[in-house]
From TrEMBL:
Domain of life assignment: Bacteria
Protein modification: Binds 1 heme group per subunit.
Protein name per its UniProtKB record: Cytochrome c
The UniProt record lists the keyword Heme: yes
Length: 158
């Protein structure tokens, strides 16, 4: 019993459709996985920048002759990087991350700490604009305390 031409054609179309869907899904899945890897890399880069620029600002506030241009560049980078992090913990981007699952499953506290860090770095930038060491130091204190709290709560220890 051989299949009719219609049955073979329908079967071939169904097979082609399935292969096409699998190929598209595979590409989409790969692209999504790649996007998440890129997001993780961007987060890690932002956190590295934040660490480095925080050190620049911390060292400058201890000097008697402050380089306000260096402080301005550092505070601008801190603002950019801390703001970028607001959108960098997208659902699905936890695979391969050093962050704990609770960042995504229970994000309320994490988001609050992230917002506090951002506010601290905004205060640093405002202090730099005013050339107010006291305001810069207050902003640093807020930002650094939230960094420490966040690391204790949300950074995986492998």
């Amino acid at each position: 019993m051989s299949k009719s031409i219609t049955e073979r054609t329908v079967g071939n179309k169904a097979m082609k459709t399935m292969i096409t869907l699998l190929a598209v899904f595979g590409i989409t899945h790969t692209s999504l996985a790649q996007a998440h890897e890129e997001m993780i890399a961007a987060r890690q880069n932002a956190f590295s920048n934040i660490e480095n620029q925080t050190k620049v600002v911390s060292k400058q506030v201890k000097k008697s002759d402050i380089d306000w241009q260096a402080m301005l560049a550092a505070s601008e980078q801190l603002t950019v990087d801390s703001t970028m992090l607001s959108n960098a913990f997208e659902t699905g981007s936890q695979e391969g991350s050093k962050a704990k699952e609770s960042v995504w499953s229970k994000p309320e506290k994490f988001n609050r700490l992230l917002a506090e860090m951002q506010q601290g770095y905004k205060q640093v930038a405002e202090g730099v604009d005013k050339q107010s060491i006291d305001e810069v130091q207050r902003g640093l204190k807020v930002a650094e305390s939230t960094c420490k709290s966040c690391h204790r709560s949300y950074r995986s220890r492998w």
